[in-house]
Each structure stands twice: as C-alpha cells, then as structure tokens.
Specification:
Layout lengths: L1 E6 L6 E5 L1 H18 L5 E6 L5 H16 L3 E7 L8 H14 L4 E10 L2 E8 L4 H8 L9
Parallel strand pairs: 3-4
Antiparallel strand pairs: 1-2, 4-6, 5-6
C-alpha cells in the first residue's frame, strides 16, 4: 500500500492510501482501450478510365459501396490517356453517375476536380442519425380522458 496523491490541484491536495501498481495498471489499460476506440478514417481510391464498360463499372461501384459501408472515404479517380482528354465530358458523366448511384449511402465531400490527366472526386459515408430517428419513431402516449 502506498500514499497516492489523487487530486494535486485541489486545496488541500487529496491523497489516498492504495496500491500504486494497480493504479498504474488501470491507467495504462484505459489508455490502451482508448487508442483502440479511436479509428483513423482511411481514404480508399478507385481508379477507372472514361471508357470503362458497364460490368466493370458495376464491380468498381460494388467496391466503393463496400468501402463506404465500412466507414472509409472513397476517392473516385478518372484517368485519361492519349486522346481520351478530348472526351473530358465522358469522365465527368461517369463521376456524376457514381454520385447518383452512391447517393443513398454517401455524400460528396469534394466536387470533381481536374489535375493534369486525372479527374477525381471524394465521397464520404453519410452520418448516421440514430438518436433523432429513435426519438421520432417512439410513439407518444396519448392522454387518458377523465
């Protein structure tokens, strides 16, 4: 058993008699648990070409929706090669198509932007409105007539 200063900022300082090793263990465990809970949001990138066919587009769309459901942001990149730059509108149309197809599960975070021979857009998963929906869904009890 040790004399441990619990609140050094208070006046007078608060001390307790307790096992100091146990306190250190608890602090390390709490810090470790907190590090586990903090999750970095990764940016996943999906690259397509402006002439991508429908089945390949659907595959890329499925990958994007899986990433969004896991909570990751997705960067959709259209890569142009050679004379494809003359058909810039096809790439823009494809990004807009991604935007409409992913609308139920994602919001556009960065609008389509051209950088050199690439055009990209970032989408992020929609925020979940759990608390507000559960309150709205719960029925309000009717007043009893007296």
């Amino acid at each position: 058993m040790d004399l441990v200063e619990v609140a050094p900022d208070s006046s007078p300082p608060v001390c307790r008699i307790m096992d100091y090793g146990r306190i250190l263990y608890d602090q390390k465990r709490r810090a470790k648990d907190q590090r586990k809970k903090t999750r970095t949001q990764e940016l996943k990138e999906i690259k397509v070409r402006p002439n991508t066919d429908t089945h390949d587009y659907q595959t890329k769309l499925n990958h994007a929706s899986e990433f969004l459901e896991k909570g990751h942001k997705v960067k959709l990149t259209i890569m142009y090669r050679g004379r494809e730059m003359a058909h810039y509108d096809r790439g823009t149309a494809m990004l807009r198509r991604f935007e409409t197809d992913l609308a139920p599960i994602a919001d556009v975070e960065a609008q389509p932007a051209q950088r050199g021979r690439t055009q990209s857009m970032v989408v992020a998963p929609k925020k979940k409105k759990v608390a507000k929906e559960s309150v709205a869904a719960s029925p309000v009890p009717a007043a009893k007539p007296e």
